[in-house]
Inverse folding.
């Protein structure tokens, strides 16, 4: 009797390549953790060796000497403010273009989707000049405005793809019960968008938290007190190179987003593929 599901052929070469690729990705993380537990002389003498003793003073120093806690709080608040705006504006824009039959809705959807193809390197100089003319350059508001506008095309794309799978009968039933367009959206449609919302929270939370280049360009090293910019200010000291503290800072800044992704990775993938099939 044959099995209903035949065994898949194993590909040793492909598995070996994937294993090597995984090791190539994990090895820098492992070295960062190992070197964060060493003293500076140990790192200089043998950066690839295991620590002779666990030196936790490096982790204490990054919160006292580098003031990383305040920068992490700034990054957390920036993530919360940006993601909240993206969820509200992105979901409402997608609903208007997909459901309300607004004038020029198709053109606006294509217009927003075209924003996915524009790299930051093309717009960074005009964007900085525009913020400078408005008098908001090197401010948190300018960075927040850039993050929100930069993430809206992807948010609208995800929300609109999933919204096409929601039956219109739910909205018609809500209209019969007396709900207006705003109440229908927030009470009926938006709760059904939870998988997409979770994906947006994870994706943009990881991206904004880990962002260095855009925050550094738009805010500068002296005023941009976000997490990785603050760590760069400590790294760029021309007289002191405390690599042990820098490795500890990298581990601390990587831990929250890594934990968030590991916990919610299934919902992340589900939200991205939620609108792929009808």
């Amino acid at each position: 009797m044959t099995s209903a599901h035949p065994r898949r052929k194993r590909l040793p070469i492909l598995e070996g390549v994937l294993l090597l690729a995984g090791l190539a990705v994990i090895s820098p993380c492992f070295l960062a953790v190992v070197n964060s537990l060493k003293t500076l002389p140990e790192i200089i003498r043998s950066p690839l060796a295991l620590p002779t003793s666990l030196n936790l003073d490096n982790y204490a120093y990054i919160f006292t000497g580098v003031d990383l806690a305040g920068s992490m709080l700034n990054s957390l608040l920036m993530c919360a403010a940006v993601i909240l705006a993206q969820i509200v504006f992105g979901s409402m824009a997608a609903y208007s273009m997909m459901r309300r039959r607004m004038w020029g809705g198709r053109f606006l959807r294509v217009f927003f989707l075209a924003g996915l193809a524009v790299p930051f390197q093309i717009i960074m100089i005009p964007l900085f000049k525009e913020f400078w003319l408005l008098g908001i350059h090197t401010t948190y508001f300018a960075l927040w405005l850039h993050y929100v506008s930069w993430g809206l095309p992807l948010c609208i794309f995800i929300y609109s793809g999933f919204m096409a799978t929601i039956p219109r009968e739910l909205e018609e039933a809500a209209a019969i019960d007396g709900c207006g367009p705003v109440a229908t959206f927030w009470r009926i449609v938006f709760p059904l968008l939870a998988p997409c919302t979770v994906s947006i929270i994870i994706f943009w939370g990881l991206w904004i938290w880990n962002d260095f280049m855009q925050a550094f360009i738009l805010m500068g090293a002296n005023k941009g007190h976000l997490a990785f910019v603050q760590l760069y200010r400590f790294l760029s000291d021309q007289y002191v190179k405390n690599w042990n503290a820098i490795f500890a800072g990298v581990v601390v800044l990587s831990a929250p987003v890594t934990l968030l992704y590991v916990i919610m990775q299934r919902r992340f993938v589900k939200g991205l593929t939620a609108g792929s099939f009808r």
